[in-house]
Amino acid sequence: VSELANRVLSGDLRATARLCRLADDRVPGYRDAMKALYPHTRGAWMVGITGNPGAGKSTLVDRLLRLLRAEGVRVGVVAVDPTSPFSGGAILGDRIRMQEHFSDPDVFIRSVATRGALGGLSRSALDIARVLAGWGAKVVLIETVGVGQDELEIANTADSTLVVVAPGLGDDVQALKAGILECADVFAVNKADLAGADAAAADLEHMLSLGADTTVVHGHRVSSVASNSIGERWIPPVLKCVASRGDGVAEILTALRAHRAWLESERGSARRFARAKLALTERLKDALAERVVGENETAIDVLAAKVLSGAVDPYSAVDELLGTNA
Amino acid sequence: VSELANRVLSGDLRATARLCRLADDRVPGYRDAMKALYPHTRGAWMVGITGNPGAGKSTLVDRLLRLLRAEGVRVGVVAVDPTSPFSGGAILGDRIRMQEHFSDPDVFIRSVATRGALGGLSRSALDIARVLAGWGAKVVLIETVGVGQDELEIANTADSTLVVVAPGLGDDVQALKAGILECADVFAVNKADLAGADAAAADLEHMLSLGADTTVVHGHRVSSVASNSIGERWIPPVLKCVASRGDGVAEILTALRAHRAWLESERGSARRFARAKLALTERLKDALAERVVGENETAIDVLAAKVLSGAVDPYSAVDELLGTNA
Lengths: 326, 326
What we know:
2 copies of one chain form a homodimer. Chain A is α/β, with parallel strands linked by helices and 326 residues long. Chain A is built from 14 helices and 11 strands. Chain A has helices at 2-9, 13-24, 30-37, 57-70, 99-102, 121-135, 149-157, 173-181, 197-211, 224-227, 249-264, 269-295, 297-309, 314-323; strands spanning 45-51, 75-81, 83-84, 89-90, 107-113, 139-143, 160-165, 186-189, 216-217, 220-221, 238-240. A 7-stranded parallel sheet of chain A has the order 5-2-6-1-7-8-11, with helices on both faces. A two-stranded antiparallel sheet of chain A has the order 3-4. A two-stranded antiparallel sheet of chain A has the order 9-10. At the A-B interface, helix 3, strand 3, helix 7, helix 8 and helix 9 of A face helix 3, strand 3, helix 7, helix 8 and helix 9 of B.
């Protein structure tokens, strides 16, 4: 196992792919490899990219990847996808445009799919991002669809999160935008050549100004004592771009780097702590679920049958399951 | 507490609202009320309604609600919303069109918002649906945005799930459609008066035919021994509608009722079991997270600080936390 970690750290592509798979499949022992890897990955920059379907996230990821590669930076990409049992795994969808990067030896792209009842999407995505950092990625771009709880958690545990919006995506956009608003360190209003882009940007600025008198650190209200000084807050910039042409993308990367510098300064310490705590809590929940659900499959089957027949209610069934694990 | 349950069972609106709140806030003791309530709720029909943003779910829910009310059926509605710390809770968004139902004494509408780090969205939604069943709702409509893991879990634990799609929602729709495909018991192609509706319906039929030789029970592959007979499978019908005018909505309700009849027949037993098992597993995971995360907040704080300083890696930190709870 530690040999596998060493091979990943030496930049071995096959070992990296193998450890990604082991982590995703929760093969016993992968955690030992992760422990060996971890201390070497603390310098990597994890960048979350999220936003509504159709906002152009993949195109923007492709452009950011090109900019970083032009600087010679080694990059990892984690694409978080909904699963289809029909297709049997992650759907690459419009990520076909990423194909040219697959032949670049300094780019590693890995998809992570939503799992079944056991869940664990955020744990998988974080672990795989960590493996890519071990392989040598200085920047790991983690692309998610920004709607579900898991995806929000991933965005909230990244170092810096870019939220991509676009004008004209239907009447529910307003509601979704609010759901992902507090993840954002930088906003990109993509498709800025379309009508409605200025309105969308103004809308975001307005929403941000509404939040300005509350102390919100990236989706988590914190006590105003901890960080109510304006000097400690990061105000997310709202930047327009046309990702399909590459316009405005360099400015987005610059803004993300400014956020990183803020995060690593003294002023970013509350945010760093909140992030570390959330990531640890997620890992704990995931490990608990894996252990207890895995060890009690038969008991769960028996109790599910009893719930169906009306012999027990589901609340008492959980008590019974927890009793055996207390 | 059992007095509260009794008041809910007698149809008391204020008691119902109170138990919804207790369940959502995880106030200690709410589970005892749920246990008292549960045996009286087994006849309620839980209907999940999910689909992409902009597909017109709320309009369709409104129309289904009107049809059911015209029959004199008491109905509960659970609207699962993304949370915004800025707005401080659930966003009603375009659910304003539901407003007329708020004055109907036989309709109870409750929103459930995505939570913070503790998660538990699916548990909250299921509990609140159960409370509404206790209040006397014969049908509970549970509306979610069909993208995240939690939302998929809610859809997968409903008795019958309607997946709403609409033509022309941008290039990511294809991918999302696949993610929610396996939840569906009935498909509604809404906005059928728009160009592309026939193509969307044909697309769905094609996807369903691709899955036809695999035995898929609502998002969970099951062994082909258990239910590979065509007689035991439910083939989701694909129905067109224009929810804004009410066209085709009665046919959708009829199809959902046909699904319910199938589910309650011998042929639906594998599906009933899968649903009960998934719901129980979700409750178990949630109860575990609540107990262990709640009891270890200080230890998590200390370890998160150690992870930040590099004194420990997060994998070993989880081991340490689980060790104290083994």
